[in-house]
C-alpha cells in the first residue's frame, strides 16, 4: 500500500521468504525443514498453503490489476531454523524432536558459503514440493481476487538464481503443471508469466537460450555485482572505502551500478534475450533500482522498469 501511495506502478520484487518468517507459520516452516521425506514436507507445507494464499490475495487486491512479480523461495533453509538454545528447546518441545536431532539437522544444512550454496532454484529442484505449494497459493489467489474484483490478475512468477536454461525449463514445467491443475479444479482460465532473475554471469551469457522459455528477465544486480566482482556485499565495507580513497574505483559498485562490468553484462543479456524474444520484459531489482545514475543507465539500454527497495 505504501508503494502505491508513493506512485509505484507495480511490484517488481515480492520476496516470499519474508512471509515464511511470520509468527503464525514459522513453526510449520521448521516442521517442513525437519521432515525426513517429501511426504513429510508436503504435510507441513499444507499448513502453510492457506496462509501464503491469503498473503497473495491481500497483495493482489491492493495492487488491483497492476503488475506483481513474485519471487519463489530464495534463501537457504538453514536461515529458518532457530539460532538460540531457548528457541531450539521450544522447537524441540513443540515438534517432539530431540535437541540432538535438531542440532544434527542444523549441521546438515550448514554451508560454508550459503550465498553460492543450496538456495534459489536449487531448492526448488531438490524440493519441488516447496515451489509447488507456492505456485498453487499464487494461482488460487488469482482466482479468488479475479472473482471478487472482476479484474484479470496476471501474476509474474519469478524463478531465482538460475545458471542456465535447463534449470528454468524444469521449474517452468512444474509451475505450469500446477496452473493447469488449478484451471481444472476451479473451471477458470489463468493468465500468467514465468520469468527469471538474472543474477549469475552464466545466466547473463546464456540469456539467448533462456529467453526461449522465459517471458521476462529481472536483473538481480545485488548478487550479479557480487558474482561478477567476486566480492561479498556484506564484507565489502572493510576495504571498498580504501579503494575509493585511493582512486581505484569511483563509486561503491553495490550502490551505483558498475557500467563497464556488471552493466555490460546486463546490456549483453538484454540484447541476447531480445534477439530471441522481441517482447521480452526487462527490469532490474536491487539497491541499484533506487540510485538515479543506475536508473539512467538502465533507461539508456532499453530496460522496461526498475524495482526499488521499499520506502525506509
TrEMBL record:
What does the record give under GO molecular function? Answer: pyruvate, phosphate dikinase activity
Q: Which residues cross the membrane?
A: none
Q: List residues of the PEP-utilising enzyme C-terminal domain.
A: 2-311
PANTHER family hit by this protein:
PHOSPHOENOLPYRUVATE DIKINASE-RELATED (PTHR22931), PYRUVATE, PHOSPHATE DIKINASE 1, CHLOROPLASTIC (PTHR22931:SF9)
UniProt name for this protein: PEP-utilising enzyme C-terminal domain-containing protein
Q: Which organism is it from?
A: marine metagenome
